[in-house]
């Protein structure tokens, strides 16, 4: 025992034996206390150290703050990096039905052959219905990254640099850096469970507006995939990511001649995989197209019509509060493509430009309607002013009607002439 004196301890035991019983008990307790004291001097600091090590993280952080820690908010809560905010290109977002039992039933696909009630030989079972398929897939032909010129100025799109970092200075004067705003090449793809590649169908290309992401806005808030499924139309969706969550309407690769055609061709294989039949890729590659442009999406919409390289395959254009410019491109397409329909719905924000575009179209001898209650026929040109109280932010889900994308596609699928045009165009393009 540390600190003990052997000689004193022997004398203490001898004196203890000569004492009365009651005195001996008291002396024994005192002697035991003296033995424990050195041991406590060692154990007490050790116990305090162990208690401090077992302290909870929140308490430790509080203690650091009380002591005047110099760690900044950014040190304790670092800003997410680009790779953390955006999943990998292979990540898929499947929309599951609410009823688990129904979902399990729909996932059962019969693969065994069966005998038909005729003299025909055994044939494979037809492909059964499956769930809606939604995925985010990176494409080389998507809008960004883009290293070319801005056609409006014929100057490099990336016109700002800071060391190795490159960016784009917008018309407002704000700089958007490529690694944050113009580096996401993913496309939101959606194939409804009822889609049938053997029937006339269309590809809906959706160009989103400013300040948007595919997951948060196009998929979850504006519910564009859901609107396509609910329309009942035989349609699939392609929605490329444009500027990421930024007030910028740049079209990127869609500025280039033939860009829309390259985009559709590269998407075809992925749509076929989502559909579950790789042989369907050729059909998707030649399928007619309906373009929907919302707000700042008017720029890639206009250039896709002007130089997209798909000829008369565009069977319809829908602008949702989106006529901010490029009026000559829209007017030219309307006058030259009388087999497709054109719909522009607008608020007071774009009313002046819509009225200007209406006059340009009338000057070309094309009739203009302001009624969306009638049938949507080939060559229809409709401008719809939405009432006060309709907000620009919610326009994709609430315009002249709730879920306007669903409404237009439903009208299109109920118009036999448009269906026949889509079918004949697809068959012609495949030969």
Structure, explained:
There is one protein chain. Helix 13 (327-336) packs parallel to helix 14 (351-363). This protein has a domain at 82-95 and 129-143 and 184-429: Rossmann fold. The strands form three sheets. Strands 1-7-9-8-10-11-12-13 form an eight-stranded mixed β-sheet, sandwiched between helices. A three-stranded antiparallel β-sheet has the order 4-5-6. It has a two-stranded antiparallel ribbon with strand order 2-3. The chain is α/β, with parallel strands linked by helices. It contains 16 helices and 13 strands. Strand 5 and strand 6 (175-177) form a beta hairpin. InterPro entries: AB_hydrolase_fold (IPR029058). This is Alpha/beta hydrolase.
What pattern of helices and strands is seen along the backbone?
Answer: HHHHHHEEEEEEHEEHHEHHEHEHEHEHH
The chain-level mean pLDDT equals 78
Secondary structure: number of strands: 13
Strand order of the largest sheet: 1-7-9-8-10-11-12-13
Overall 3D form = globular
The secondary-structure class comes to alpha/beta
CATH topology of the domain at 82-95 and 129-143 and 184-429: Rossmann fold
**Alpha carbon gyration radius:** 36 Å
The first-level CATH class of the domain at 82-95 and 129-143 and 184-429 is given as Alpha Beta
Tally of alpha and pi helices: 16
Largest sheet at a glance? 8 strands, mixed
The fourth-level CATH homologous superfamily of the domain at 82-95 and 129-143 and 184-429 is Alpha/Beta hydrolase fold, catalytic domain
**Poorly predicted tracts of residues:** 1-18, 44-128, 426-431
Helix content: 25-40%
Oligomer: single chain
Strand content: 5-15%
Distance between the termini: 100 Å
């Amino acid at each position: 025992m540390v600190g003990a004196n052997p000689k004193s301890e022997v004398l203490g035991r001898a004196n203890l034996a000569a004492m009365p019983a009651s005195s001996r008990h008291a002396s024994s307790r005192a002697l035991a206390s003296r033995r424990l004291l050195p041991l406590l001097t060692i154990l007490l600091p050790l116990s305090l150290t162990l208690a401090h090590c077992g302290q909870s993280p929140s308490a430790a952080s509080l203690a650091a703050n009380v002591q005047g820690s110099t760690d900044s908010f950014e040190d304790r809560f670092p800003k997410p990096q680009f790779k953390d905010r955006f999943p990998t290109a292979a990540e898929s977002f499947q929309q599951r039905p609410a009823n688990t039992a129904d979902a399990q039933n729909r996932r059962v696909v019969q693969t065994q052959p069966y005998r038909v009630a005729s003299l025909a030989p055994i044939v494979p079972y037809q492909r059964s219905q499956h769930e809606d398929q939604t995925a985010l897939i990176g494409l080389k032909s998507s809008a960004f990254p883009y290293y070319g010129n801005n056609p409006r100025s014929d100057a490099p799109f990336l016109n700002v640099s800071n060391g190795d970092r490159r960016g784009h200075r917008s018309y407002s004067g704000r700089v958007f850096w490529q690694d944050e705003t113009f580096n996401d090449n993913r496309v939101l793809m959606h194939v409804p469970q009822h889609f049938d590649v053997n029937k006339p169908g269309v590809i809906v290309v959706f160009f989103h507006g400013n300040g948007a992401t595919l997951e948060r806005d196009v998929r979850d808030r504006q519910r564009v995939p859901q609107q396509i499924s609910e329309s009942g139309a035989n349609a699939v969706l392609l929605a490329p990511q444009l500027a990421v969550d930024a007030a910028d309407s740049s079209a990127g690769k869609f500025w280039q001649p033939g860009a829309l055609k390259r985009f559709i061709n590269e998407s075809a294989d992925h749509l076929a995989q989502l559909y579950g039949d790789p042989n369907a890729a050729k059909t998707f590659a030649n399928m007619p197209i309906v373009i929907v442009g919302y707000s700042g999406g008017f720029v890639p919409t206009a250039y896709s019509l002007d130089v997209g390289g798909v000829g008369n395959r565009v069977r319809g254009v829908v602008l949702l509060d989106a006529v901010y410019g490029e009026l000559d491109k829209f007017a030219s397409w309307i006058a030259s493509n009388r087999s497709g329909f054109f719909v522009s719905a607008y608020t007071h924000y774009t009313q002046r430009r819509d009225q200007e575009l209406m006059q340009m179209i009338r000057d070309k001898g094309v009739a203009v309607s302001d009624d969306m209650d009638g049938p949507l026929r080939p060559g229809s040109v409709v401008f719809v002013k939405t009432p006060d109280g309709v907000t620009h932010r919610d326009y994709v889900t609430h315009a002249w009607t709730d879920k306007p994308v669903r409404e237009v596609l439903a009208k299109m699928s109920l118009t036999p002439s448009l269906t026949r045009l889509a079918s004949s165009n697809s068959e012609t393009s495949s030969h």
